[in-house]
What we know:
single chain; lipopolysaccharide transport protein A fold
Amino acid sequence: MISLSSIPRPLLTASLVIIGLGSWYLASQDNGKTISSDQELPHVPQYFVRNLEMTEMGNDGLPERHVETSSLIQYLDDGTTEMESPRYNFYRQDGAPWQVKAEQGWLSSDGELALLSGRVTIIRAATKESPSFKMVTSDLRVQPGSNYMETDEHVNAKSGKDVIDAVGMQAWMGEPGRIKFLSEVRANYVPR
C-alpha cells in the first residue's frame, strides 16, 4: 500500500493536474448526448417542491396573494408549472380575502396565467356588510397579477340563503370586487 506522503510532492501535483485536465476534457466532449440550440428540450421536471407556501407582498408592504400547494413541478422545456391541490388567497383591504381551491393547477412560465382544473371552490368569509359567499365550478382561468378569474363551465354560487346557477362567470377580486354571470342564469333570492 502506498501512502500519499511517500509520493514526491511534484509528482503528486502533476498527477492531480493530469487527472483534472483529463476529467475536463471528457466532460467537454459532445459524445452525442448534448442538445444543440436548435433542438427542443425534453418535457422533463427541472425541479419539484413539496408543501410550498408563498406570500406575495404589495408595494405597501401588505400581503396581496398567498399560494399553497402540496406538490409543485416546474418543467425544463417551457418553464410551466404543475401543482397538486393549489390554494390561492387574494387579499383585499376592504374586506375578507377570496380563497380559491382546486384539485389541479397549471401555471404559465411568466406566472401571468393559472389554469385550475377539477372541482374549484371559491370562498369569501362573511363580513359586517355581507354574508359569506361560496362558488363551485371547474376549469377556472386565473390572472393572478390582475386578480381576475373566469370560467365557461357551470357555476353554483351561494351567498347567505341566495343561490345562483349559471354557465360562465367572470370575477374581479380586487377593489371594488364584482362578479358577472354570463348565460343561463337562474337565481333564487330570499327577501331579508
